[in-house]
Design the sequence.
């Protein structure tokens, strides 16, 4: 995707995030903007986080539209894996990639194995932080086997959208 198209997507994301939507509407509309700008497998997964504890408070995927599988929470809180949302949120960059976290061989990761069972391969987590540094959410995007690896430009795009999205999530949670 061209730089211009991504810049326009960022403008649209900031506009949507500033509207004061409820959380489902926010994630649904932003997903429609994000998907063409950042090719991914089965839509992004949006997770809201309690900024103090970094516990997951909600999940939304515009394609699957189902409850978060219990196994996902098990991976997050009980599993022995090198990769989870809270660790990404605690990191300085706020970014985590399954391939980077596993040194390029994710096969030992239970989380990756579950993603493969659903047809995915790559997974990229970007923490949605406000400009003051509070982590209110994450976006996780996936790619199927054989797809190009997520690039630095892909990560930069999500990081550029993150402050607007974090404020949008915060606002949606506060106004209900």
Sequence:
């Amino acid at each position: 995707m061209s730089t211009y198209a991504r810049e326009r997507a960022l403008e649209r994301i900031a506009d949507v995030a500033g509207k004061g939507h409820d959380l489902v509407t926010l994630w649904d509309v932003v997903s429609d903007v994000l998907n063409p700008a950042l090719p991914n497998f089965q839509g992004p997964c949006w997770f809201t986080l309690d900024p103090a504890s970094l516990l997951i408070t909600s999940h939304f995927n515009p394609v699957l539209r189902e409850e978060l599988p219990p196994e996902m929470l098990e991976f997050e809180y009980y599993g022995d894996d090198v990769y989870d949302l809270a660790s990404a949120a605690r990191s300085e960059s706020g970014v985590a990639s399954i391939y980077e976290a596993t040194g390029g061989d994710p096969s030992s990761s239970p989380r990756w194995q579950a993603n493969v069972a659903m047809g995915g391969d790559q997974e990229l987590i970007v923490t949605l932080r406000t400009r003051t540094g509070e982590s209110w959410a994450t976006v996780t995007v996936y790619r199927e086997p054989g797809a190009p690896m997520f690039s630095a430009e892909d990560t930069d795009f999500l990081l550029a959208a993150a402050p607007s999205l974090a404020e949008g999530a915060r606002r949606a949670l506060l106004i209900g």
